[in-house]
Structures are given as C-alpha cells and as structure tokens.
Amino acid sequence: MMKKIILFFVLLLLLFVVFVILFGKISIKQTKEKSSLEESSFYKNYYSKEDLLLINVWSIGSQSILEGNPKIEEIVNNYEVSLITISTEEDTLKLKGYLLNKPIVKTKDITLQNYNARDRIFEVIEFSDYKKGLSNIVTFSVKKTPYTVLIKNKEIIFKSDDNLDIKKLDEILKSIKNKHF
C-alpha cells in the first residue's frame, strides 16, 4: 500500500515537471514573439498612424503629466495631438491596482496592452538605452520619470525630463500648426 502511494506521488511529480517544461517553453516563446515593436498595439494604433503623438512615461512614484497640468488637455484639443501614457512599473498586479484606484484621466495608458514590447517602445522614444559592451553584455539604462516626448511622423521633435515645459511644448505645436495652414 505504501509503495502505491509513493509511486502515485512520484508519477504526479513527474507529470507536474513535464507540464511545467512543456507549457513553460510555450509561454517563453509567446513572450518573445510579442516583444517586437511592429506587432505591438502601440505601433499599430498610434506610432504608425498618428501625425502628432505626445507620450508620457510615468511611474507610481512620480506624477503623470496630467496631474497638476490642466493646460495639457487644452494643448491636446487645440493641436490635435494624441496623448498616451506608459508606466515603468514592473509589477503588473501593482500597476492594475493603481490604475483601478487612481486612473489617469483624459488619456490612454498603454502599459498593460504593450507590456511585452515596452523595452522596444522605450528605445524608440529614447527613454532607454541598450548598449552592447565587452563579451556582448547588454547594459540597460533609463531616464527618470516623468519623461515626455512629442513625436511627429515617427521623429522625436521634443523631449522633456522631470518637469514638462508646457510653454515650450505649446510654442512647438503652434509652429507646426502654422506650417499646415
């Protein structure tokens, strides 16, 4: 009887190990496939379509540009700028809880939909830097949050670390708008 119980648990453990190996590889493969920029919803819905795109990188420890900047809504409306935010938060459960309790109003936060492509997005908006060093070791550095960029036709035309210079952003957008007319 004791041998049957031991055999049962050994088989159960073996089945568990096989399950983890099989499904572990599948989830890793899916993560790698989803990490390309071109496959992300950021690229499909914003980066490849929008003429003017204002992106704010934020963290739970720092404010989003919308908090304390009522002029942002006016700028977005006056200049037909698409405004999106993306968080640096690694813990998705913490991020979901934060967004449920303190949603970033009047904008679209794209963090969760683009979680697997976030590193590529950070590269495109020059928030992070990947550098290969000796022995192909990759170093990764990021700027502080909040960090804001204005992109026109896939080109960064304005960057702001920490405190967003609303006046300068307004001047740049006014200049762009005047060129269209």
Notes on the protein architecture:
By secondary structure, this protein is of the alpha/beta class. The protein is 45% helix and 21% strand. The protein has a five-stranded mixed β-sheet, with no helix packed on it. A two-stranded antiparallel ribbon has the order 4-5.
Overall strand count: 7
**CATH 2nd-level architecture of the largest domain:** 3-Layer(aba) Sandwich
* Estimated share of beta-strand residues: 15-25%
Q: Summarize the biggest pleated sheet.
A: 5 strands, mixed
Structural class: alpha/beta
Give the overall form. Answer: elongated
Write down the secondary-structure element order. Answer: HHEHEHEHEEEEH
Widest β-sheet, arrangement of strands? 3-2-1-6-7
Number of helices: 6
CATH class group of the largest domain: Alpha Beta
Distance between the termini: 88 Å
Domain count: 2
- Mind telling me the C-alpha Rg? 22 Å
Low-confidence stretches: 25-34, 130-141
Q: Approximately how much helix is present in the residues?
A: 40-55%
The residue-averaged pLDDT reads 75
Classify the fold: give the CATH topology of the largest domain.
Glutaredoxin
